Amino acid sequence: MSAEAPLGVTPAAEDGVGVAEMVEEAAVWCAVHGLVVGDRSQPRSGTVPGVGLVHAPFSLLPTHFPASFWKQACELAPIFNDLVDRVSLDGEFLQDSLSRTRQVDDFTARLLDIHVKMMEVNKKEDIRLGLHRSDYMLDSETNSLLQIELNTISSSFPGLGSLVSELHRTLLNRYGKDLGLDSKRIPRNWAATQFAEALGMAWTQFNNESAVIMMVVQPEERNMYDQYWLINHLKESYPFIICFLFPCNVKKTLAQVEAEGQVLPDGTLVVDGRTVSVVYFRAGYSPNDYPSEAEWKARLLMEQSSAIKCPSISYHLVGTKKIQQELAKPNVLERFLDNKEDIAKLRKCFAGLWSLDNEEIVKTAIEKPDLFVLKPQREGGGNNIYGHDLRETLIRLQKEQGEALAAYILMQRIFPRASLTHLVQGGVCFEDLTISELGIYGAYLRNKDKIVMNNQCGYLMRTKVSSSNEGGVAAGFAVLDSILLTDEVIAIYRLIIMNIY
After folding, report:
1. Tell me, what's the pLDDT at 476?
2. Rounded to an integer, what distance in angstroms lies between the CA atom of residue 26 and that of residue 33?
3. 462 included as an active-site residue
4. Which residue segments constitute the domains of the chain, with CATH numbers given?
5. 123 counts as catalytic
6. What is the per-residue pLDDT for 270?
7. Over the stretch 358-376, which tens digit does the pLDDT of each residue have?
8. Set 128, 274, 321, 391: catalytic member
9. Is 396 an active-site residue?
């Protein structure tokens, strides 16, 4: 990993403007505009709205990002949306690809059990809604944009991520001339409004004016304000929905769904006396979300219903690490996509991905562990294995033999270029070498054969100290950021807007 001249804060920021002044203004902006999360030091901050707030961790200024790679990432979003939908329809592929994983991973096995039940009754999902996020890093070794993972469930931070872009634009409008930075080079971030639009359009397609949109959440959620921003935009775009039992204010845990929910003979999902049209999962992606059988019963109950699931169980499975690795194999994409140009674009962004059955790659990873990442079938950050721990884990798995190898995949480690950045956490600003990860949001909605929506719809930039292996904001490893496009930025950005919006 190589360091370069600071991209986050230029010398002018220290000499002419003053970092402390910018930090104070930014912190005030966060408080006034709702760029906040729950304070971990306040026990009630994850359960009671408005109690124990602190600004979300953020970078003081946006990170430089080449316009050509930004354009590439945006163009990939609709292709990945389509791919997820097509792969989800191939139940045998999902079951076969994850068959060995189910033997050693209880969580994946339970998801597959629900999927099997849906296959056995030939459950049809006429209306299919996906809110995805594909994450990338710029690899300095190959000078290419490489995919980290594809998220198909609980793609977080569309609300707060959109706000960080506005925060940086505000700061550059005031200080940009002294810093030599142009606020117009920060792409508009429509993630929150576009996600809300997708949820609203799904509600419309369901065609039941008395039905509600239900958000499935964790019992303690300090990132609830990211979720509330979606609710707020949904109310603004679909105010007429509010007349019917406040449908976009329905937030339930899995346990509450199990206790209050039922599926009527016609397939209608009713929770707490309300008909549910859309189930939007912001929980259910981790084993921690299923502490008892009640939560698994709730997941099955919702899957059996006619409500639109975001994601459905099949969409959820498409987002597993093992499926990502399977799709990277030769000739597999051709099973699902016909357009050769689209296939080539996807392959161009694939990093090296291998199963642990590949003895040659495993041997290389043991010898050179710093060149690889070992990934289990988990979401949410803090799960990957690196360096010495990677070597020790592979050696142990080899000794154990059996199916334990199927619980992981090996991935080529990506080496982004590090730069000096000012990071702000808890009102404290510090400077460190950082690396960044770009997530591109995508929204997909299909009603039978009609594609209602297939868009790239905003982005999430996360920046972390380069010495940290993990990168989740909610997990405490990273800060929220935005991007400052370089090169032929304005012409390219206008082209993207014309094509997408």
Report:
1. 55
2. 10
3. yes
4. 3-351+414-500 (no CATH), 352-413 (3.30.1490.50)
5. no
6. 97
7. 989 999 999 999 999 999 8
8. 321
9. no
